[in-house]
Write a structure and sequence with these properties.
This protein is of the alpha/beta class and about 300 residues long. It is about 45% helix and about 20% strand.
Protein backbone atom coordinates (compact mmCIF):
# COMPACT_ATOMS: atom_id res chain seq x y z
CA UNK A 1 0.00 0.00 0.00
CA UNK A 2 1.45 3.42 -0.95
CA UNK A 3 2.11 5.92 1.84
CA UNK A 4 1.08 9.56 1.56
CA UNK A 5 2.16 12.20 4.08
CA UNK A 6 0.37 15.53 4.35
CA UNK A 7 2.23 18.32 6.09
CA UNK A 8 -0.28 20.69 7.61
CA UNK A 9 -3.47 19.41 9.24
CA UNK A 10 -5.56 22.52 8.81
CA UNK A 11 -8.67 22.72 6.63
CA UNK A 12 -6.74 22.09 3.39
CA UNK A 13 -4.55 19.30 4.73
CA UNK A 14 -7.36 17.47 6.49
CA UNK A 15 -9.69 17.79 3.50
CA UNK A 16 -6.93 16.49 1.24
CA UNK A 17 -6.68 13.43 3.50
CA UNK A 18 -10.45 13.02 3.26
CA UNK A 19 -10.43 13.06 -0.57
CA UNK A 20 -7.47 10.65 -0.65
CA UNK A 21 -9.14 8.22 1.73
CA UNK A 22 -12.30 8.24 -0.39
CA UNK A 23 -10.19 7.35 -3.41
CA UNK A 24 -8.44 4.55 -1.49
CA UNK A 25 -5.03 5.71 -2.67
CA UNK A 26 -2.86 4.73 0.29
CA UNK A 27 -2.10 4.93 3.98
CA UNK A 28 -2.13 8.49 5.29
CA UNK A 29 -0.06 10.52 7.72
CA UNK A 30 -1.09 13.97 8.91
CA UNK A 31 1.66 16.12 10.43
CA UNK A 32 1.17 19.47 12.14
CA UNK A 33 3.04 21.57 14.71
CA UNK A 34 -0.09 21.97 16.87
CA UNK A 35 -0.26 19.15 19.39
CA UNK A 36 -3.44 17.09 19.20
CA UNK A 37 -4.80 18.49 15.93
CA UNK A 38 -3.30 15.90 13.53
CA UNK A 39 -3.83 13.10 16.05
CA UNK A 40 -7.48 14.02 16.56
CA UNK A 41 -8.29 14.50 12.90
CA UNK A 42 -6.40 11.36 11.94
CA UNK A 43 -8.27 9.27 14.53
CA UNK A 44 -11.63 10.74 13.50
CA UNK A 45 -10.94 9.86 9.87
CA UNK A 46 -9.67 6.37 10.76
CA UNK A 47 -12.95 5.69 12.55
CA UNK A 48 -14.83 6.59 9.35
CA UNK A 49 -13.03 3.93 7.29
CA UNK A 50 -15.36 1.04 8.25
CA UNK A 51 -18.30 3.14 7.05
CA UNK A 52 -16.80 3.69 3.59
CA UNK A 53 -15.16 0.21 3.47
CA UNK A 54 -11.56 1.36 3.29
CA UNK A 55 -8.73 -0.62 4.91
CA UNK A 56 -6.33 2.27 5.35
CA UNK A 57 -3.96 3.27 8.14
CA UNK A 58 -4.43 6.93 9.09
CA UNK A 59 -2.25 8.51 11.78
CA UNK A 60 -1.55 12.01 13.03
CA UNK A 61 1.72 13.22 14.49
CA UNK A 62 3.78 16.24 15.46
CA UNK A 63 6.96 14.38 14.48
CA UNK A 64 8.30 14.23 10.91
CA UNK A 65 9.61 10.72 11.66
CA UNK A 66 6.05 9.48 11.17
CA UNK A 67 6.40 10.27 7.46
CA UNK A 68 9.19 7.73 6.96
CA UNK A 69 8.97 5.83 3.68
CA UNK A 70 6.40 8.09 2.02
CA UNK A 71 5.74 7.74 -1.69
CA UNK A 72 4.11 11.18 -1.84
CA UNK A 73 4.68 14.20 0.42
CA UNK A 74 2.05 16.93 0.15
CA UNK A 75 2.97 20.35 1.54
CA UNK A 76 -0.08 22.33 2.65
CA UNK A 77 1.38 23.90 5.82
CA UNK A 78 1.46 27.68 5.97
CA UNK A 79 -0.54 30.76 6.77
CA UNK A 80 -3.80 31.21 4.83
CA UNK A 81 -4.63 34.36 2.92
CA UNK A 82 -6.73 36.96 4.70
CA UNK A 83 -8.94 39.64 3.12
CA UNK A 84 -6.78 42.24 1.41
CA UNK A 85 -3.71 40.01 1.53
CA UNK A 86 -1.98 39.05 -1.72
CA UNK A 87 -0.23 35.73 -2.19
CA UNK A 88 3.08 37.57 -2.16
CA UNK A 89 2.35 38.93 1.31
CA UNK A 90 2.61 35.38 2.55
CA UNK A 91 6.10 34.87 1.18
CA UNK A 92 8.33 35.43 4.21
CA UNK A 93 6.31 33.46 6.76
CA UNK A 94 5.49 30.57 4.49
CA UNK A 95 9.03 30.25 3.14
CA UNK A 96 10.19 29.41 6.65
CA UNK A 97 7.38 26.89 7.21
CA UNK A 98 7.68 25.16 3.82
CA UNK A 99 11.47 25.17 3.86
CA UNK A 100 11.61 23.31 7.17
CA UNK A 101 8.90 20.84 6.12
CA UNK A 102 10.66 20.04 2.84
CA UNK A 103 14.06 19.48 4.44
CA UNK A 104 12.75 17.43 7.37
CA UNK A 105 10.53 15.13 5.31
CA UNK A 106 13.30 14.47 2.80
CA UNK A 107 15.42 12.97 5.60
CA UNK A 108 12.78 10.28 6.09
CA UNK A 109 11.55 9.84 2.51
CA UNK A 110 14.39 10.46 0.05
CA UNK A 111 12.48 8.80 -2.80
CA UNK A 112 9.22 10.72 -2.40
CA UNK A 113 7.49 12.89 -4.97
CA UNK A 114 6.51 16.29 -3.57
CA UNK A 115 3.25 18.09 -4.32
CA UNK A 116 3.30 21.70 -3.12
CA UNK A 117 0.11 23.58 -2.31
CA UNK A 118 1.24 26.39 0.02
CA UNK A 119 1.06 29.94 -1.38
CA UNK A 120 2.65 31.76 -3.08
CA UNK A 121 2.51 28.45 -4.88
CA UNK A 122 5.04 28.74 -7.69
CA UNK A 123 7.68 30.20 -5.39
CA UNK A 124 7.10 27.63 -2.62
CA UNK A 125 7.58 24.87 -5.21
CA UNK A 126 10.79 26.60 -6.33
CA UNK A 127 11.98 26.74 -2.70
CA UNK A 128 11.18 23.05 -2.20
CA UNK A 129 13.15 22.01 -5.27
CA UNK A 130 16.17 24.11 -4.39
CA UNK A 131 16.34 23.08 -0.72
CA UNK A 132 15.84 19.36 -1.38
CA UNK A 133 17.99 19.13 -4.51
CA UNK A 134 15.50 16.68 -6.00
CA UNK A 135 15.15 16.08 -9.75
CA UNK A 136 12.60 18.47 -11.23
CA UNK A 137 10.29 15.57 -12.10
CA UNK A 138 9.70 14.95 -8.39
CA UNK A 139 8.52 18.42 -7.32
CA UNK A 140 5.23 19.69 -8.72
CA UNK A 141 2.97 22.56 -7.69
CA UNK A 142 -0.82 22.38 -7.60
CA UNK A 143 -2.03 25.38 -9.55
CA UNK A 144 -3.68 24.94 -12.92
CA UNK A 145 -5.75 21.92 -11.88
CA UNK A 146 -7.62 24.14 -9.43
CA UNK A 147 -7.75 27.21 -11.68
CA UNK A 148 -8.99 25.15 -14.63
CA UNK A 149 -11.64 23.50 -12.44
CA UNK A 150 -12.89 26.90 -11.33
CA UNK A 151 -13.15 28.01 -14.93
CA UNK A 152 -15.00 24.81 -15.88
CA UNK A 153 -17.45 25.39 -13.02
CA UNK A 154 -18.15 28.96 -14.17
CA UNK A 155 -18.63 27.87 -17.79
CA UNK A 156 -21.01 25.13 -16.65
CA UNK A 157 -23.02 27.70 -14.68
CA UNK A 158 -23.22 29.97 -17.71
CA UNK A 159 -24.11 27.31 -20.27
CA UNK A 160 -26.20 24.96 -18.13
CA UNK A 161 -24.19 22.03 -19.51
CA UNK A 162 -22.47 19.23 -17.64
CA UNK A 163 -18.94 19.91 -16.42
CA UNK A 164 -17.99 16.68 -18.22
CA UNK A 165 -18.62 18.42 -21.56
CA UNK A 166 -16.38 21.34 -20.64
CA UNK A 167 -12.59 21.36 -20.86
CA UNK A 168 -10.64 24.42 -19.76
CA UNK A 169 -6.92 25.06 -19.54
CA UNK A 170 -5.36 27.73 -17.37
CA UNK A 171 -1.62 28.36 -17.55
CA UNK A 172 0.78 30.75 -15.85
CA UNK A 173 1.51 31.76 -12.29
CA UNK A 174 -1.05 30.86 -9.64
CA UNK A 175 -2.29 34.40 -9.10
CA UNK A 176 -4.13 37.28 -10.72
CA UNK A 177 -1.90 37.08 -13.82
CA UNK A 178 -2.87 33.49 -14.70
CA UNK A 179 -3.75 32.79 -18.33
CA UNK A 180 -7.11 31.12 -19.09
CA UNK A 181 -6.62 29.77 -22.63
CA UNK A 182 -10.04 30.42 -24.12
CA UNK A 183 -8.88 29.43 -27.61
CA UNK A 184 -7.80 25.98 -26.43
CA UNK A 185 -10.67 25.47 -23.98
CA UNK A 186 -13.89 24.02 -25.36
CA UNK A 187 -17.51 23.01 -24.84
CA UNK A 188 -18.07 19.57 -26.39
CA UNK A 189 -15.23 20.30 -28.82
CA UNK A 190 -16.38 23.81 -29.76
CA UNK A 191 -13.74 26.42 -28.80
CA UNK A 192 -14.89 28.51 -25.86
CA UNK A 193 -14.27 31.77 -27.70
CA UNK A 194 -16.72 30.60 -30.37
CA UNK A 195 -19.34 29.26 -27.97
CA UNK A 196 -19.72 32.26 -25.64
CA UNK A 197 -20.06 35.97 -26.33
CA UNK A 198 -17.05 38.21 -25.81
CA UNK A 199 -18.59 39.85 -22.73
CA UNK A 200 -19.61 36.60 -21.05
CA UNK A 201 -16.26 35.02 -21.75
CA UNK A 202 -14.39 38.05 -20.40
CA UNK A 203 -16.45 37.87 -17.20
CA UNK A 204 -15.60 34.18 -16.75
CA UNK A 205 -11.91 34.83 -17.36
CA UNK A 206 -11.88 37.63 -14.80
CA UNK A 207 -13.74 35.55 -12.21
CA UNK A 208 -11.32 32.66 -12.75
CA UNK A 209 -8.32 34.89 -12.16
CA UNK A 210 -9.82 36.22 -8.94
CA UNK A 211 -11.39 32.93 -7.86
CA UNK A 212 -9.28 32.49 -4.75
CA UNK A 213 -9.77 36.06 -3.63
CA UNK A 214 -13.54 35.78 -4.08
CA UNK A 215 -13.64 32.91 -1.59
CA UNK A 216 -11.26 34.65 0.85
CA UNK A 217 -13.54 37.69 0.89
CA UNK A 218 -16.60 35.53 1.56
CA UNK A 219 -15.04 33.40 4.30
CA UNK A 220 -13.40 36.38 6.06
CA UNK A 221 -11.17 34.17 8.22
CA UNK A 222 -9.78 31.59 5.80
CA UNK A 223 -9.26 30.57 2.21
CA UNK A 224 -10.49 27.89 -0.18
CA UNK A 225 -9.88 24.29 0.81
CA UNK A 226 -12.43 21.95 -0.83
CA UNK A 227 -11.41 22.54 -4.46
CA UNK A 228 -7.64 22.93 -3.81
CA UNK A 229 -7.53 19.67 -1.88
CA UNK A 230 -9.60 17.86 -4.54
CA UNK A 231 -7.07 19.07 -7.11
CA UNK A 232 -4.22 17.60 -5.05
CA UNK A 233 -6.09 14.31 -4.79
CA UNK A 234 -6.44 14.15 -8.57
CA UNK A 235 -2.71 14.79 -8.99
CA UNK A 236 -1.83 12.17 -6.35
CA UNK A 237 -4.02 9.60 -8.05
CA UNK A 238 -2.46 10.34 -11.46
CA UNK A 239 1.01 9.76 -9.99
CA UNK A 240 0.35 6.67 -7.88
CA UNK A 241 -1.76 4.97 -10.55
CA UNK A 242 0.68 5.88 -13.34
CA UNK A 243 -2.09 7.43 -15.42
CA UNK A 244 -0.10 9.65 -17.81
CA UNK A 245 -2.72 12.32 -17.16
CA UNK A 246 -2.25 15.72 -18.84
CA UNK A 247 -3.07 18.49 -16.37
CA UNK A 248 -1.81 22.05 -15.88
CA UNK A 249 0.60 22.17 -12.93
CA UNK A 250 3.44 24.33 -11.73
CA UNK A 251 6.67 22.80 -13.04
CA UNK A 252 10.35 23.73 -13.06
CA UNK A 253 11.19 25.02 -16.50
CA UNK A 254 14.41 24.09 -18.27
CA UNK A 255 14.00 25.58 -21.73
CA UNK A 256 10.32 24.83 -22.32
CA UNK A 257 8.36 27.88 -23.50
CA UNK A 258 11.74 29.67 -23.55
CA UNK A 259 11.92 29.67 -19.74
CA UNK A 260 14.61 28.51 -17.33
CA UNK A 261 15.06 28.41 -13.55
CA UNK A 262 11.44 29.23 -12.77
CA UNK A 263 8.38 27.30 -11.60
CA UNK A 264 5.48 28.11 -13.88
CA UNK A 265 2.03 26.73 -14.68
CA UNK A 266 2.07 24.62 -17.84
CA UNK A 267 0.44 21.38 -19.05
CA UNK A 268 2.36 18.36 -17.79
CA UNK A 269 2.06 14.59 -18.04
CA UNK A 270 1.78 13.07 -14.55
CA UNK A 271 2.71 9.45 -13.92
CA UNK A 272 4.68 7.37 -11.43
CA UNK A 273 7.82 9.35 -12.23
CA UNK A 274 6.09 12.57 -11.22
CA UNK A 275 6.30 14.98 -14.14
CA UNK A 276 7.04 12.77 -17.13
CA UNK A 277 7.18 15.69 -19.55
CA UNK A 278 5.92 19.19 -20.24
CA UNK A 279 3.43 19.77 -23.06
CA UNK A 280 4.00 22.94 -25.09
CA UNK A 281 1.11 24.85 -26.66
CA UNK A 282 1.62 27.14 -29.63
CA UNK A 283 0.58 30.54 -28.32
CA UNK A 284 -0.69 33.39 -30.45
CA UNK A 285 0.48 36.98 -29.95
CA UNK A 286 -2.21 37.86 -27.39
CA UNK A 287 -1.62 34.68 -25.38
CA UNK A 288 2.14 35.19 -25.48
CA UNK A 289 1.76 38.74 -24.16
CA UNK A 290 -0.32 37.44 -21.23
CA UNK A 291 2.19 34.64 -20.75
CA UNK A 292 5.11 37.09 -20.55
CA UNK A 293 3.23 39.26 -18.05
CA UNK A 294 2.58 36.26 -15.81
CA UNK A 295 6.23 35.17 -16.08
CA UNK A 296 7.33 38.62 -14.90
CA UNK A 297 5.03 38.42 -11.86
CA UNK A 298 6.33 34.98 -10.86
CA UNK A 299 9.97 36.03 -11.37
CA UNK A 300 9.41 39.00 -9.06
CA UNK A 301 8.29 36.65 -6.30
CA UNK A 302 11.16 34.25 -7.00
CA UNK A 303 13.58 37.18 -6.75
CA UNK A 304 11.99 38.27 -3.47
CA UNK A 305 12.49 34.73 -2.12
CA UNK A 306 16.16 34.75 -3.09
CA UNK A 307 16.65 37.84 -0.94
CA UNK A 308 15.19 35.98 2.03
CA UNK A 309 16.73 32.53 1.59
CA UNK A 310 20.11 31.42 0.31
CA UNK A 311 19.25 28.93 -2.43
Amino acid sequence: MPKISIIGAGMTGATTAHWLAERDLGDLVLVDVVEGIPQGKGLDMLEAMPIISRDLEIVGSNDYAATRGSDIVILTAGLPRKPGMSRDDLLSANAEIVGKAAVETLKHSPDAIYIVLTNPLDTMAYLTLKLTGLPRARVVGQAGVLDSARMRAFVAQETGLSVENIQCYVLGGHGDEMIPLTRHSNVAGIPLNEYLSVDKLAAIVNRTRKGGGEIVNLLKTGSAFYAPSAAVAQMTEAILRDRNLVVPCSAYMDGEYGLRDIFFGVPVVLNRQGIARIVEYKLNAEEQAQFDKSVAAVKDTHDALKKLVKI
